[in-house]
UniProtKB/TrEMBL annotation:
Family recorded in the similarity comment: Belongs to the methyltransferase superfamily. METTL23 family.
Alphabetically ordered keywords of this record: Methyltransferase, S-adenosyl-L-methionine, Transferase
Presence of the UniProt keyword Lipid biosynthesis in the record: no
UniProt xrefs under Gene3D superfamilies: Vaccinia Virus protein VP39
Protein name in the entry: Calmodulin-lysine N-methyltransferase
GO MF terms held by the record: methyltransferase activity
InterPro entries found in the cross-reference section: Methyltransf_16, SAM-dependent_MTases_sf
Cross-referenced PANTHER family: HEPATOCELLULAR CARCINOMA-ASSOCIATED ANTIGEN, HISTONE-ARGININE METHYLTRANSFERASE METTL23
Source superkingdom: Eukaryota
Gene Ontology biological-process annotations: methylation
Source organism: Polarella glacialis
Length: 232
């Protein structure tokens, strides 16, 4: 895979594409969600990341908690990049698996449940960009989330406000409770959907100040500019 940059996102080293290739770059909401997941103590089981891209969110959670994480995506080149990043960070408790949020979702979801059981925490970021995307994400959460006590956390840029509202409305129609809607100063919304009564608590959300960087103390403006291209 050519045109790869390595950036530092908190404790996670991340290889991303140096050109704005969907799924292979670091989008803004992923960074915000990863910063919050890095504050988690545990969720009582493995985390499942939908549309993982480079894998930042799942890896941030795994590094913070020492718990297992399963990163999923439907694109082969994205899964290849996520696998490289898992190896780069030495995270042996993180699995990368295929989950197509569409045609193969039900069968691939069944395979995940057979191996890992239902998940107490399902997350995703920057992965709803079309009207049908919300329904597919909720269908995956409905299938894979622990119905006795689980949370689904979806992070979206505020440019996609219509999808935030749709996610809340369709989530409630599907039997989820909207536990929280967090709007950040960085222009990202976090929607927390609840199913049942989880035994674990969410940590307080704190806005991050630093941006992903090639060096820990230097913001990577190029990465931020690439993310903006999607919404131009």
């Amino acid at each position: 895979m050519e045109d790869i940059d390595t950036v530092l996102c908190g404790p996670v080293q991340l290889q991303i594409h140096s050109k704005p290739v969907y799924g292979l770059v670091l989008w803004p909401a992923a960074r915000v969600l990863a910063g919050w997941l890095a504050k988690f103590d545990s969720c009582g089981g493995p985390l499942l990341e939908l549309g993982c891209g480079a894998g930042l969110c799942g890896m941030a959670f795994a590094k913070a908690t020492g718990s297992a994480a399963v990163l999923t995506d439907g694109e082969d080149d994205v899964l290849e990049l996520a696998e490289r990043n898992v190896e780069l960070n030495g995270l042996h408790g993180v699995d990368v698996r295929c989950l197509d949020l569409g045609f193969m979702q039900e069968e691939e979801g069944k395979a995940l449940i057979e191996e890992f059981g239902k998940f107490p925490l399902v997350v995703g970021s920057d992965m709803i960009f079309e009207p049908g995307g919300t329904a597919r994400v909720l269908a995956a959460a409905d299938q894979l989330l622990d119905s006795e006590g689980g949370r689904c956390v979806i992070a979206l840029c505020n440019q996609l406000e219509n999808f935030v509202v749709t996610l809340e409305d369709q989530g409630e129609a599907k039997g989820f409770e909207v536990e929280a809607l967090i709007r950040t100063q960085s222009g990202v919304s976090l929607v927390v959907l609840l199913r049942g009564k989880p035994a674990w608590k969410l940590p307080a959300f704190e806005e991050l100040e630093e941006a992903p960087s090639h060096q820990a103390d230097q913001p990577d403006k190029q990465t931020c500019d690439r993310a903006d291209l999607l919404f131009a």
